[in-house]
């Protein structure tokens, strides 16, 4: 606390990301990073463009990157917005599109950054409980609102909603913006990008951090109607003219060019996940369905908190959430390589047998 702080700062409770441990040799399965590195073509491009031109500012509008994203999804460049990680894209969207007189709606168990943005921008919100199976029930969101946001698949549960269900909701919720945060969509969930032509109030956000293995580079984007995109651009240009640096621009473009590498690595993660889920069940875990690159599971007898701390003693880092209490015994396991999951399973067996 300091008398020099602005009023809003006193009330902030910042988001706490998963630990980035300083120790080497840990098996790190706590922040949903991709076990496979970025495409070798991405790395080669970064190396090639690390030159004297770095003294120059990058393109403030990231036109070339927007074009490659637009071409990939078969939309127009004015339907694409890019930012410094999808967290930044989301922050800008909260300020640009979700600040109205009615409260915005999101699930009670979801990405914990949403309430943080609400505090920062002084946006009223109301949380809607997941059902007993931890699913989002969009019919419960049919009330006057200042906007709706949810991840698909949801985090940290991993449970996906079908395109059909989201479309049925969009048919009824026509007076406010609906943001679908598709950070994990590439690991087995259906994207709703195909709906943006039909629903002018739909904004879809994606990240390069998980499926494109570029968490360290900080790139994300949004796709939606040009009017929504223009609102995001206005906020961005009132805040930071150059959020994407020269190397990020090049790497993002290369990542979209090397589609076979992208599809291959996503496929490998999905395969490892399906196998891991079966093995977890055999160890008496109840596992929620996952359309993501992580699984959310609870052991039928041993408390999650104990398992997480014992795993840590063996050098394996996973994630657990104290709040809300309904999920406090669940563990979120990021899907790593086959080798990492094998070590994890053997360690779990050891812990559960002692
Ligand atoms: C990881 C994550 C993001 C943000 O990813 P960036 O690294 O900022 O691109 C957004 N939403 C959800 C639900 C996430 O889990």
Structure in words:
The protein is globular and about 60 Å long. It is of the alpha/beta class. Helix content is 36%, strand content 14%. The longest helix has 24 residues, at 259-282. The protein folds into two domains: 7-37 and 260-352, Aspartate Aminotransferase, domain 1; 40-258, Aspartate Aminotransferase, domain 2 (3-Layer(aba) Sandwich). The strands form four sheets. It has a five-stranded mixed beta sheet with strand order 2-8-7-6-5, sandwiched between helices. It has helices at residues 7-10, 40-49, 63-73, 86-97, 113-121, 163-172, 226-236, 246-257, 259-282, 304-313, 338-353; strands spanning 27-28, 80-83, 104-107, 125-128, 148-151, 178-181, 202-207, 220-224, 285-287, 294-299, 316-317, 331-334. It contains eleven helices and twelve strands. It binds pyridoxal-5'-phosphate (PLP). The site of pyridoxal-5'-phosphate has 12 residues, from helix 4. This is Histidinol-phosphate aminotransferase. Its EC number is 2.6.1.9. It catalyses: L-histidinol phosphate + 2-oxoglutarate = 3-(imidazol-4-yl)-2-oxopropyl phosphate + L-glutamate. Residues 25-348 form the Aminotransferase class I/classII large domain.
């Amino acid at each position: 606390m300091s008398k020099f702080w602005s009023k809003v700062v006193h009330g902030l409770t910042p988001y706490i990301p998963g630990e980035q441990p300083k120790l080497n040799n840990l098996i790190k399965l706590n922040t949903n990073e991709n076990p496979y590195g970025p495409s070798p073509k991405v790395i080669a491009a970064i190396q090639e463009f690390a030159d004297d031109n770095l003294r120059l500012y990058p393109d403030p509008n990231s036109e070339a990157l927007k074009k490659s994203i637009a071409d990939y999804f078969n939309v127009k460049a004015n339907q694409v917005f890019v930012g410094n990680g999808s967290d930044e894209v989301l922050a800008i969207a909260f300020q640009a599109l979700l600040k109205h007189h009615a409260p915005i709606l999101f699930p009670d168990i979801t990405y914990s950054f949403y309430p943080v943005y609400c505090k920062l921008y002084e946006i009223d919100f109301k949380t809607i409980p997941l059902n007993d199976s931890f699913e989002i029930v969009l019919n419960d969101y049919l009330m006057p609102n200042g906007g709706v946001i949810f991840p698909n698949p949801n985090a940290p549960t991993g449970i996906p909603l079908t395109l059909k269900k989201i479309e049925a909701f969009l048919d009824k919720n026509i007076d406010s913006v609906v943001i679908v945060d598709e950070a994990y969509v590439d690991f087995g969930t259906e994207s709703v990008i195909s709906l943006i032509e039909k629903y002018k109030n739909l904004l879809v956000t994606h990240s390069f951090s998980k499926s494109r293995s570029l968490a360290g580079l900080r790139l994300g984007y949004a796709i939606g109607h040009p009017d929504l995109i223009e609102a995001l651009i206005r906020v961005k240009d009132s805040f930071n003219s150059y959020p994407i640096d020269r190397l990020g621009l090049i790497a993002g473009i290369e990542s979209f060019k090397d589609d076979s590498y992208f599809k291959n690595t996503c496929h490998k993660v999905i395969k490892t996940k399906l196998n891991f889920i079966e093995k977890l069940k055999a160890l008496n875990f109840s596992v929620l369905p996952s359309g993501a690159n992580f699984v959310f599971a609870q052991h039928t007898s041993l408390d999650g908190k104990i398992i997480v701390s014992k795993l840590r003693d063996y050098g394996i880092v996973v994630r657990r959430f104290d709040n809300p209490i309904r999920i406090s015994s669940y563990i979120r396991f990021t899907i790593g390589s086959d080798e990492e999951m094998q070590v994890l399973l053997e360690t779990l067996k050891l812990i559960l047998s002692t």
